[in-house]
Structures are given as C-alpha cells and as structure tokens.
Design goal:
Cathepsin D, subunit A, domain 1, four-stranded antiparallel beta sheet, 27 strands, aspartic-type endopeptidase activity, secreted, TAXi_C, Peptidase A1 domain-containing protein
C-alpha cells in the first residue's frame, strides 16, 4: 500500500463547491485483470467497501463527518452519475430532494470474507442486506428461503457495482423467471441473446416514464412494508432495436452468494450506505420522480 494527496469536489448537496485537498489517502496497485468486465475506459477501482481503508472511511476521518456515502449510477454512457461522501441532502434537477424519500434496511455483516484466500479469517467487506422474499406483480416467488440466509459465509444477498446485472442462484433464477413469464403473458417471447435467457419483442410493449410496461419486481427486505421496487427501466435491457431481455442472469447451482444485485438494477436509483447506523437506504427509480442520476448540478457555485 501507498498514500498520496487527493483533490475532490465539495458540495452542499445541490451544486458543486470548491475543490478540497485530502492528504495521505491510502491506495494500492493491482493488475489490469481486476478491470475485466468493466468499461474499457476504466483505469482503476474505487474502494467503497466495508473496510477501514475504504474511501468513505478515509474521507470521514479527514473531514470529521459520518461514515456515510451515497451513489447514483447514470443509465447513460454519455452522462455522469454522482457519489456523495458524507450526509445529504441529495438534490437533483429540477429541485428533487431524494434523501427525504429513502427507505432503509439493515446492513448484514457476513462474518466470512468473500474476497478469496488472501483475506481468510476476516469478515466480508461486501454490503449484504436482509432480502426475505421476491414478489412480481404482488405474487411471491417460491424460493428456498434458506438460500437467503448466510451460513458459514455462503448464501445471502449483496449489492455489487462490479457485476453488470443481477445474478441469482439457479433455483432462485428459475422460480423468478417462471413467475415473471406468467405475469408477462402479454409479451411476445423471442430468441435469447447472451448473457440473457429470456427475451421479448418490444414492438408492442408500451413505454412508460419508468421504462417498458412489464411486471413490477419487488425485493422485499426485513419487513413486508420495506421493499425495493424495480420498474422496466431496470429490469429490461434493450439488446436490439426490437428486442428487450430480462436483465437477470443464472449464477449456477452453488454460488458463494445466492443473489448479487448488479449495477444495471442500481442505475438511476440512489443508494445510501450508512456505516454509522449499519443500514442501507434506497430510493427506487428516480425516473418515477421525473429526474435521473445524471441530473445533479455539476456547475460550480463558487
């Protein structure tokens, strides 16, 4: 490991402020293989995990604010998303204050590292959440609920910006798809397009503010009243001009983690990680609020 001085932009949650200097930021060098599967323009990986040397923890120490950050991934390859270190507000054009409408669920500590033998004996730095069920159009997906629990480091649900799409253990994936297809009987199935297994014609699929008009997916957390709703913009991927695919993939019969919520499902959703209170906050789709993650005002107010 090494350290260096970093310069980042400050903000009041509405507009960009002056640049501030952070001395002694710890970083490490790695091989380019770590960038496999990421954008071709990616030069490195920002450490945002549950670690004492993650950027949120280092910045919290430097500026004496809570160990908390929020990320909002843009759905556009030509527009920026935004990460906030510290507390809100999180205001997007046209004056949409997202922090007031977040729902919260506890962060679960996986006591066993999911990062390989090098970190054996340490707890996982990934962010696990207490997903208890999945509903599609209000209908429960029949799952082996034991897979949603963490046992000896295996199972459970985590979020990941490294995985482009949500990955599910095979039995969960099959049950999920069966219910989705039953609820999407009005959609015309077409040939699959890798890595997706279930694709549909978009010719006769109506478009809404929150994406294609397809069945609603609810990720139900620790309480039935706390659920992360996934609309068509985050469940369906446009792979061809007239073809959309269900943006979830089969992770095999024995994955380390049963469900990994991937980056596509996080786009245009604000996700807050609060390490002080050990909880995750989520907004669901900002499209429903008539804004996006690229609508933060990056114009300096200074």
């Amino acid at each position: 490991m090494a350290s260096d001085t970093t310069v980042i932009q400050s903000t009041d949650g509405r507009t960009v402020g002056k640049a501030v200097v952070v001395p002694g930021v710890v970083f490490t060098c790695g091989t380019t293989s770590l960038l496999k599967g990421l954008s071709t323009v990616a030069l490195g990986i920002a450490g945002l995990g549950r670690s004492e040397v993650s950027l949120p923890v280092q910045f919290a120490s430097a500026f004496k604010f809570p160990k908390k950050f929020a990320m909002c991934l843009s759905s556009s390859s030509s527009s920026k998303g935004v990460i906030f270190f510290g507390d809100g507000p999180y205001v997007f054009l046209p004056n949409v204050e997202v922090s007031k409408s977040l729902m919260y669920t506890p962060l679960i500590l996986n006591p066993v590292s999911t990062a390989g033998a090098y970190f054996e004996g340490n707890p996982s730095t990934d962010y696990f959440i207490n997903l208890t069920s999945i509903k599609i159009n209000g209908k429960a997906v029949p799952l082996n609920v034991a897979l949603l629990n963490i046992t000896d480091g295996n199972g459970g649900t985590k979020i990941s910006t490294v995985n482009p799409y949500t990955v599910m253990e095979t039995s969960i994936f099959k049950a999920f798809v069966n219910v989705f297809r039953h609820e999407a009987k009005n959609l015309t199935k077409v040939s699959s397009v890798k890595p997706f297994k279930y694709c549909f014609s978009s010719k006769n699929t109506p478009s809404t503010r929150v994406g294609p008009a397809v069945p609603l997916i609810d990720l139900v957390m620790h309480s039935s009243s706390v659920y992360w709703r996934i609309f068509g913009a985050n469940s369906m991927v446009q792979v061809k001009e007239d073809v959309i695919c269900l943006g979830f993939v089969d992770g095999g019969s024995n994955p380390r983690t049963s469900i990994v919520i991937g980056g596509y499902q996080l786009e245009d959703n604000l996700v807050q990680i609060d390490l002080e209170k050990a909880r995750l906050g989520f907004s669901s789709s900002l499209l429903f609020k008539q804004t996006t993650c690229s609508n933060f005002n990056f114009t300096s107010s200074a």
